[in-house]
Structure formats: C-alpha cells, structure tokens
Amino acid sequence: MTLTVNDVKRIADLAYIEIDEGEAKETLIQLSGIFNLIETMQAVDTSTVEPMSHAQSVVQRLREDEVTETDQRELCQSIAPQVEAGLYLVPQVIE
User: Fold this and answer.
1) Looking at the whole model, is its pTM more than 0.90?
2) How far apart are CA 37 and CA 60, in angstroms?
C-alpha cells in the first residue's frame, strides 16, 4: 500500500490530531515501514502451517467433573416470594 503525505494529513485530520509537515513526513516513513513488513509477512506461504490456539505449547490441567455440593434448590426456593414449577416468578417490567 502506498501512502502520501496528504494521506497521512487526512488520517490525522480524521483522528483530530494536529500534525505539521515534518511530523507527517516522519509518520509516512514509519507507516511505510509497517506496510512493507506486512507485505513481507503476507508473502510467506503458510498453507501447511496448522492454526494454533496459543503461541506456546500449553496444556491446561483439568480436574475431574464431579459433584461436590448437595442440591439446595428446595431450600433456596423456599425463601423466594413466588415460585412455580421450580422457576422463580418476578413482576413483569416490560409491556
């Protein structure tokens, strides 16, 4: 992608950033370097590389899925103002 100093000034204007001619030229050099790096990276053939979920080979330790607490549904619903068929009833707030 090729940018000009006018493009940099327009982008700065859209971002409400005041920029003078010298800063625009310096920013143009930096942005051109970034775009060149992106083009170089996109030129690499990655069709044989499998996608990774993480940059390092990390395995998460998982615990066994077992019940550790007793069912307290009846106890919790006994103090609720209104319950029907195991569901909490609340006042309608949207018409």
Assistant:
1) no
2) 34
